[in-house]
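Our consortium's second objective concerns turning raw sequence data into structural hypotheses that experimental partners can test. To show how far this objective has progressed, the report includes one record in full. It was chosen at random from the queue rather than selected for favorable results. The single chain below, 277 residues long, was entered without modification.
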Amino acid sequence: MRDKKEGKLNRKQKAIAWISVLLLLTAFGVSTYKIVTAVREYRKSADAYSDLQEYVFPVYENTAPANTDNGDTDSLDETAESSVGWYYTLQNIGADFTRLAEINSDVVGWISIPSTKLSYPVTQTGDNTYYLNHLFTGEQNICGCAFLDCRNDEDFYSRNNIIYGHRMNDGSMFTCIQNYKNQSYYDAHPTATLYTPEGTYTIEFFAGYVTEAYGDPWKMSFTSDEAYMEWHDSLVARSDFTSNVSFSENDRVITLSTCSGSFTNARYVLHGVIRGY
């Protein structure tokens, strides 16, 4: 009897051991699949947005002496003189929104922070979920696309224009805005450039901080100019960095928003004033 009982126990223990091994192998397989899928989607995203960089280009103004013909602006430096004496000055960087709209009619702008990885088209659609997992090309992808809040005016004429983008493990999309926790990073990157079909504008950053995923950073309606100014002052008071950016009730704000690992459902937001409107 004892041998039979021990035999049953051994068989039971072996069965449990095999089930444990199978569960571990299944978990390993699922984890490996997720990692491989994520790497593949990161690569597709990087390739897709790299290809779109050709739609952003330098814009030169001909500053040649009077009564001369235009020369060729190809391969010019910031201020350059061609071999035949024509002068050109770099005015700004433009974006070809006609060609971008042929790829995706939801395009409303392009956002770039010089000397960082952040240089992406901005879309807007009827909800704030579609571009969380779709690239600019429309392909489903975990990296998503930067997008303007669906409640904002598509011409960025709202008082608080919110642009969302993911924080990716490879440093792409809006990952770099968390670096504004450091004053030295702000000092090196105090501005961004916003390209729209109507023109090119500078964004002067004035506040950045970690916050909950709701509340004042996403406020769009203000009862008065005084309330709008008080809102601005409250953002500055929370900022990780100090700036000398001026602000008035006539100014409009760009808010860049991304996830933060500081705590559950945390966000890092970066506010800037739009100049040049």
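The partners drew two points from this record. The longest strand covers residues 199-212. The two ends are 92 Å apart (CA to CA). Both points have been shared with the crystallography group to help prioritize constructs.
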